[in-house]
Amino acid sequence: MASDRVMGVSCDVTDSAEVDAAFGRVEAAWGPVEMLVYAAGVLRSEPIARTTDDDLAAMLDVNVAGAFRCIRRALPAMRQGGWGRILLVASAAGLTGGSPGLAGYATSKGAVLTLTKAVARDVAPDGITVNALAPAMIETPMIQGLYDRPAPVGRVGAPQDVAHLAEALLAEEAGYITGEIIGVDGGFRLG
């Protein structure tokens, strides 16, 4: 994938007008959006008894509804072009329930996995693939202090571990892969 064909745009994914404006900036520069990587996420670590309604609402709004808004905005051009790639960055917590104190976060990321499958089924006839990555223990500011041991491969994951797989799933050659949830976890879910 050529770097001159990638454009990162910042916006508040909880606001449909901002999502629309962000897509508009990309479309003004390059035309219709053909690939969407949704990597926004909010994590609040609290036992369920101390997770406030506001905490839960923030995680659901950014992690799930934000993805929904961005997909909804991207689909018309992808459908018109007969081709598209959508990749959602979820979390292994959506598959496993996560560590103690992550019930709200795990719930939101589990919903992202369901969204992946539902949208993949809807848009497959249009030449659009939709997949999700479910990383665990990737060295980012969000996870600092959450894990006290490395994955079975003996290390914490690097952002590049996720990026390389994302690049492969966005490629033309990945057109027969859709509705998949792929763990990027160094064997973390092996136990």
Structural description of this entry:
42% of the residues lie in helices and 12% in strands. The model has no long low-confidence stretch (mean pLDDT 92). The protein has 191 residues and is α/β, with parallel strands linked by helices. The protein has helices spanning 16-30, 53-81, 93-96, 103-123, 159-170, and strands spanning 35-38, 84-89, 128-135, 181-184. Helix 1 packs parallel to helix 2 and helix 2 packs parallel to helix 4 (103-123). It contains five helices and four strands; from the N terminus they run H-E-H-E-H-H-E-H-E. Helix 5 links the parallel strand 3 and strand 4. The chain is globular and about 45 Å long. The longest helix has 29 residues, at 53-81. Strands 1-2-3-4 form a four-stranded parallel β-sheet, sandwiched between helices.
